Amino acid sequence: MQLVTIVPRQRLERLDLLGGPTNALIPPSRTTLPLWLALLLKRQRRINVIPPPWLDPENLREILDLETTHFQDEFSPPAPLPPLEGDTLPFPRHSLPGSRSRNQIQPAREFDAEGKMFYLSEPFLNSCTADAPPASLPYHWYEFSHLLLDAASDDLVNADLISNLLRDIREVRQAKMRRGYNAITDGSEGVRLDGVGAMEVSESRGFIAGVMGGLKNIGRSREQARREAAEEERDSRMRQDDEEDEDMT
């Protein structure tokens, strides 16, 4: 369930939903609501939406700079998962872009096949609230931002500029996906996709599936050709042995 931070304009008692009860809305106290409910109440002009920090124009410029300058061959680091319970190591300020509190906790880390460290992305929950990291795109960054631009543009700082920056970021990330396609077709063992968004995966699924299917067919054809060559060689040896036996008799 994707959550978003809101400021109510009217009082509303808590609602018992399938995902659990919501907080009572008491102006002007902030709270979080499921995205679908926040959009519904926003269209009824009963709340204002507080956009996540990464949707601020200055932070979008920083993300665009990260994508184009510091991470030219891969996606910028995603927001880390919440810390494991009982893990109290201090969060390394240099490990991810953007300002961090010294009181934050060390998130869960993973390592790829080459031994490079990366942080798992959290697709839901707090990645789009007012407490989200300022310089890390969440998994559903593209869909979420366009929903807010459509339903809550008056709550955004310079919605037109935000729309332009989002378009630039999307174009840069699409170019990285295309380079990933070329790496796959050139025989690479794989492509790093940590930090990729849901929309980018969805747009690329058909092409990647086709490429992988083609590579499988190529591999299958090579294996079939190898087997046929081995059978021909075996038949040739058997004929030679038969001819030698006839000559000896």
Task: Describe the protein's topology.
Layout: E1 3-8, E2 16-17, E3 20-21, E4 31-34, H1 35-43, E5 47-50, H2 57-70, E6 109-111, E7 117-119, H3 141-151, H4 159-185, H5 198-248
Antiparallel strand pairs: 1-4, 1-5, 2-3, 6-7
Helix pairs in contact: 2-4, 3-4, 4-5
Pfam families: PSF2_N, Sld5
Biased composition (Basic and acidic residues): 220-240
Subcellular location: Nucleus
What does this structure look like?
- This protein has 249 residues and is mainly alpha-helical.
- The chain has a domain at 3-50: 3-Layer(aba) Sandwich (Ribosomal Protein L9, domain 1).
- Helices cover 45% and strands 10% of the residues.
- The N and C termini lie far apart (84 Å).
- The model is unreliable at 85-106 (pLDDT under 50).
- Belongs to the GINS2/PSF2 family.
- The GINS complex plays an essential role in the initiation of DNA replication. Has a role in chromosome segregation.
Please summarize what this structure is.
Pfam families: PSF2_N, Sld5. Residues 220-240 have a biased composition (Basic and acidic residues). This protein has 249 residues and is mainly alpha-helical.
Beta-strand portion reads: 5-15%
Calculate the mean pLDDT score and round it.
Answer: 78
Which consecutive residue ranges, at least 5 long each, have pLDDT under 50?
Answer: 85-106
Strand order of the largest sheet: 4-1-5
Distance between the termini: 84 Å
DSSP summary: helix tally: 5
Output the CATH class name of the domain at 3-50: Alpha Beta
Globular, elongated, flat, extended or rod-shaped: what is the shape?
elongated
Main beta-sheet annotation: 3 strands, antiparallel
Order of helices and strands: EEEEHEHEEHHH
**Would you identify the CATH architecture of the domain at 3-50?**
3-Layer(aba) Sandwich
